[in-house]
Amino acid sequence: MEGINVCDLYKSYKAEKVKEGSFFKNFFKREYEIVKAIDGINFNVKKGEMVGLIGPNGAGKTTLLKMLSGVLYPDKGEIRIDGFIPFRRDRKFLENITFFTGQRSFLSIIVWDLAAIEGYELLRDIYRIDRKTFKERIDYFTDILNASDLINKPLRKLSLGERTKVELIGSLLHFPEYVLLDEPTIGLDIVSQKNLWDFFKHYNQERKATLIITSHYIRDIEELGKRVILLNKGKIIYDGERDEIREKIQYKKTIKIELSEETKDIPFEEYDYEDGKIILNVENDEINETLKKIASMKNVIDIEITEPSFEFIIRELYKV
């Protein structure tokens, strides 16, 4: 069967309990607990699909990607990718998948003081890429990512955004059909983020590749994932189209209030402040009462009522 197929998947690990008290007492008498990282999930991903995987810290996102890539094996359940079982690590499977993390990847570990091209040569040998194809692929990626000059510089001399580009090239040299991206834009400025968004879209469309992207940045998912999977405490709490997720929170509206000057006299207990505007998320049946309170405020120059932001909807779903 083609694509990614996950059935009744579980993964737990042992973690040390954090207790108050003497450091030395806890050091010599440690207690542990079993944490369910992945708790009985099921989903399928079609070939060529691009999926956003989001969740708070500890939701199980990275653990899931590690199992999909074969780095970890499940306690129970089954994963098949194009019929392969990942943790068996068949060569044909490994030649068709990559697991990229925005933290510190393969090249940073092995060629930190050398130019990226030296690391690419090692990868060429690992994946048995002939010299002509190797050069064509280097040219292909450096052209798209505008990285021709970067690959000849030592990694330690590159900025985070530049290093992310050259490491990404290394992870894709073998033209994998399955690309697992764990926080690929973490720490990047908005320009670098947009460059990667454009690249991932291009690679997905041109190579017909399957991409699964985890991120703390909701904007990443808005840009890249037509389909969204929400993980919380190891369970899937939503799996569906990104645009349909708003239907889960139909009963609220967002009211943005622009003031001519800042004031401490705000008649609301809960609100956000963004770009000089007060942001309220209000139940539909409370809108009229809220507008009356706004009318009593001084210095109001504009009011805007909109649908809730994607980020707010995600936060609300985690509360369910």
Automatic annotation (TrEMBL):
Cell wall biogenesis/degradation keyword on record: no
SMART domains documented for this protein: AAA
PROSITE patterns named in the record: ABC_TRANSPORTER_1, ABC_TRANSPORTER_2
Single GO term (MF): ATP binding
SUPFAM superfamilies: P-loop containing nucleoside triphosphate hydrolases
Record InterPro entries: AAA+_ATPase, ABC_transporter-like_ATP-bd, ABC_transporter-like_CS, ABC_transporter_ATP-binding, P-loop_NTPase
Residue ranges occupied by any ABC transporter domain in the UniProt entry: 22-258
Database matches in Pfam families: ABC_tran
Keyword rRNA-binding: no
Alphabetical UniProt keywords: ATP-binding, Nucleotide-binding, Transport
Name of the protein in question: ATP-binding cassette domain-containing protein
Organism for this UniProt entry: candidate division WOR-3 bacterium
